[in-house]
Amino acid sequence: MRILFITATRLGDAVLSTGVLAALLQRWPGARVTVACGPVAAGLFANVPGLERVITMTKRRHDLHWFDLWKACVPHKWDITVDLRGSAVTLLLHSGTRHIMRGGRRPGRRTEHLANALGLNPAPLPTVWLSPADNAMAASIIPSDQPIVALGPTANWLGKVWPTQNYLPLWQDLSTAYPTARPAIFYGPGEQEAALARPVLAALPNAIDAGGRFSLTQTAAMLARCRLYVGNDSGLMHLAAATGIPTLGLFGPSRASEYAPAGPLSRWVAAPGAEGEAPIAGLHADTVAHTALTLLEQTEPRT
Prior knowledge:
By secondary structure, the chain is α/β, with parallel strands linked by helices. The chain folds into two domains: about 1-115, 3-Layer(aba) Sandwich (Rossmann fold); about 135-300, 3-Layer(aba) Sandwich (Rossmann fold). It is built from ten helices and eleven strands. The strands form two sheets. A six-stranded parallel sheet has the order 8-7-6-9-10-11, with helices on both faces. A five-stranded parallel sheet has the order 3-2-1-4-5, covered by helices on one side. The protein is globular, with a radius of gyration of 20 Å.
């Protein structure tokens, strides 16, 4: 059994698609898998069971990246092809069953749209595949002898970024209720991510710097050791939810009805105003703290 799985360019969308891939692997254990995705998301699939190859699709003019993908895939016979990008590539390959998700953005949960492409009901939750090396590295960064609260102050669009000055009053509320807790600041590679994380690291001098230099699976392994994640609507938020830890997503001008974190212990809060239009600066720190504390209390007795 050979499966071709074409998924997203953006990290968040790629994470949301992992539940579909996991469902395929559960149905076809031992299948050989090729994943095609954008460069930002490629590391997410490093430990997929039965992985033969990750094809990194770098956007080219005139959509030539799709031609590159076709050239890489056409020599093979595929038993199942899944195209969550809605392209014509799989129609030009020697394939058995084809699953193609048509259409662009639409109302409703993204996870349900992905699941519908394969006739899955209910929609499977996202997952993440970790290696022993990932877990060992994470154990060297995130201690196990105290509750660690992960904070994600970054996003790929500044309009989704909750003002960084809110993290100090948020942490004051959290640490009052959980005196032994310690913050860990998560962010991705690159100067924009580092610049958004820097004020939070400076405001919380006891914080663990958990960003900028780790692979996606290492980051997921670190998140999996945390007691809670609080952060903007971002790929990191979706990655945290996929690990199964309590996850609180912060929303302003993005739509929680489409992109709320999808995990067994996930919640979200949104700034007041029309969905998709509300400035995230209107989301008060005390609202976030109250929801975060409620989530902590609901998921584990206070320590």
